[in-house]
Amino acid sequence: MTFAKLLGIELLEVTPELVRGRLEHHPERCTAGGIMHGGALMGLADSCGGVCAFFNLPDGAQGTSTIDSNTHFLKGVREGAVTAVSKPLHRGRTIIIVETNLTTDDGSPVAKVLQTQTFHYPRA
Questions:
Q1: Residue pair 119/95 in contact by the 8 Å Cβ criterion
Q2: Which of 31, 50, 55, 106 sits a CA distance of 20 to 30 A from 41?
Q3: Does residue 9 contact residue 50 with C-beta atoms inside 8 Å?
Q4: Is 67 left (phi over 0), alpha (psi -120 to 50) or beta?
């Protein structure tokens, strides 16, 4: 995933049941106040959620797209790294719902993200 690479996301674990990724705090990923930018955090969550969705493709599906994403920010991040853990909540034939929790190195919650992704099938 080229966008995840551009952001600096590191995938640590990938299975259909769980995707874990990490993003280090860096000045280029921050707001003017030195807090990790919400867009960087959402990029981490969407990337890990997308990998989770992809590893849960139903038979015949070729890919996924996020069609809805809801982020609740809980804490600012001024240093260290953020870890994302994505898990499927619902696996259907046309959509998957993925929950992603973002935490700091000490386990403090940073954000909770719930996203819906649609599966792409070849045109008949």
A1: yes
A2: 55
A3: no
A4: alpha
